[in-house]
């Protein structure tokens, strides 16, 4: 139990640190959202000053930070100047879209990576492993930006997939089946880009960690006893190799909100990524801070999740933690 | 021995690649900002050896493109006039490596402009823009990596050598930076810096932003090395002879961190080139008319370009050989440093 409390406290400290850091950065910013208004002759300087006062931008930093913390505690996360609404609801909608995309992609990537990696490790150095290694190496040298743009061009030129957005026009009038089909088609491209971008890393890790335990004496003993290969691999080797993979899975979960930023922008998926980019360009301060922090919460939660999973899966950690 | 050969092989490949980019002026037929408003979005030209009616030429030639009848953006080859390619020809003046003025280009044509990779919206030569853009992107990556490694080595050595509360504080901050997803960090840093600046300032800004993001990982690795090195006998002996902290760090400890820093460099440079590409692609980096691999791709955000002009995607492929080179070099280095662990099967081998 102490182990978890320790971990959770650590996570909370980390979040505080990040929020403080982003706020400090924002204080160093030259210019803000209302600066552009100042250039507009139709808006009087008094009005701009009043607006600044309304949003408390004229207050010193510690007070703003305190106000903002208070707003976070009330589930509001500050106010968006550009959208003229609290930040939280804006973020929720976008985060939901992002999660829909990334959860699907992560699930798919892991479902593909596990069998491929295990297969590759079991045939270490032989033809299937060679082919797979070459494929992952090739995918690894193609950066995600290049990959996403390439897929986009492919889609545009063949016309097989819609090239942006979440759903088609008139989505509300579709039947349930049509809705599902429409959504799947729209998701196909970004999901493919994300899966292809993460897959080589995952396959390599699975392969490496399974291959590492395959030499272990207990597995040789098991093989000597005549256990069938699939049982050895899935029942014993995978279990022993799980430790680094669970950490990696936690990391995958953690990057659910932040990993797809670029792909979202390229494929114009209405997730957090485009929102963040827009608000950076518009100097919509609290949206930026909110977005960064929300993704951080996810990252920290993902790590925590991995810790808990590890505690459950790895007896060594359990004994080490309780021995303390 | 085999590993050593691999290392040299990839080093040579990378050197050649960088050499081509560094000597962009020679390999590029035109100036990257030279416009030809009459020929926007020209598709890549074909180089021929054989004329349409079967006449064979020893010197490669091309047909200039002209607008197809009744069209305003479809080009076709003008078969009437074959324009021969000239090699080592005189063209616009440039400065080789930024110093030596020269007019010699690898190839060019006398009576018409040759567009090997097509042209962009203003009729600028894509090939030239890619080559010159590479200078910007690679320089940003290399300088960014330099800053990062400097910061990382400095902080890591300070934390590892002095220990105590300084170590704790620095490593907590490093954890913070490691926890943030780097693209977000990049964005956050960029968000809080001025948006509209001159191209050169923007470039320096990008370099600084990129350089500030990644110091945490090298710092932690350097710290680990320093922790073990500072207890080694030769360091203790030097201390016993009355060597100062600065002298010890510079003379005895810094050289020991070299291999870690080198491996990190091969990992960081391609990452940072990609970071520059991403920032410029999103309009937060190097602006026009300067070209970089990122902002060359920015036009692809327009739907009509995406649909009609596929050759605008070509700049994206320029980074792939560099990625391959750096990744292979990193894996070769990694193998060399951990040779003793590796038996006949090299598990962490990258290729």
In percent, how much strand structure appears in the residues of chain A? Answer: under 5%
**Helical content class of chain B:** 40-55%
Strand fraction band of chain B? Answer: 5-15%
Radius of gyration of chain B: 25 Å
Our Rg estimate of chain A from Cα atoms comes to 24 Å
The oligomeric status of these chains comes to heterodimer
Unreliable stretches of chain A, pLDDT < 50, 5 or more residues?
A: none
Mean pLDDT level of chain A:
81
> What's the main sheet of chain A like?
2 strands, antiparallel
State the separation between the terminal residues of chain B, measured CA to CA. Answer: 18 Å
Helix content of chain A: over 70%
SSE-based structural type of chain B = mainly alpha
Q: Largest sheet of chain B, described in full?
A: 3 strands, antiparallel
Low-confidence stretches of chain B: 340-351
Class based on secondary structure composition and strand pairing of chain A = mainly alpha
Number of strands of chain B: 7
Count the DSSP helices of chain A.
14
What string gives the helices and strands of chain A in order? Answer: HHHHEEHHHHHHHHHH
Structural commentary:
The complex is a heterodimer of chains A (324) and B (351). In chain A, helix 8 packs across helix 10 (229-254) and helix 13 (285-313) crosses helix 14 (315-323). The model of chain A has no long low-confidence stretch (mean pLDDT 81). Chain A is mainly alpha-helical and 324 residues long. Chain A is built from 14 helices and two strands, in the order ααααββαααααααααα. The radius of gyration of chain A is 24 Å and the shape is globular. In chain A, 35% of the residues are buried. Chain A has helices spanning 2-27, 35-39, 45-54, 61-73, 87-122, 127-140, 144-158, 176-214, 217-224, 229-254, 261-266, 272-282, 285-313, 315-323; strands spanning 79-80, 85-86. In chain A, strands 1-2 form a two-stranded antiparallel ribbon. By secondary structure, chain B is mainly alpha-helical. Chain B is 55% helix and 11% strand. Chain B has 13 helices and seven strands. Chain B has helices at 2-22, 24-27, 126-162, 164-179, 182-191, 199-213, 216-229, 233-240, 245-253, 258-281, 293-297, 303-308, 314-337, and strands at 48-50, 56-62, 65-67, 75-77, 83-84, 86-96, 100-108. In chain B, strands 1-2-5 form a three-stranded antiparallel sheet, with no helix packed on it. In chain B, a hairpin with a 3-residue loop joins strand 6 and strand 7. Residues 340-351 of chain B have low confidence and may be disordered.
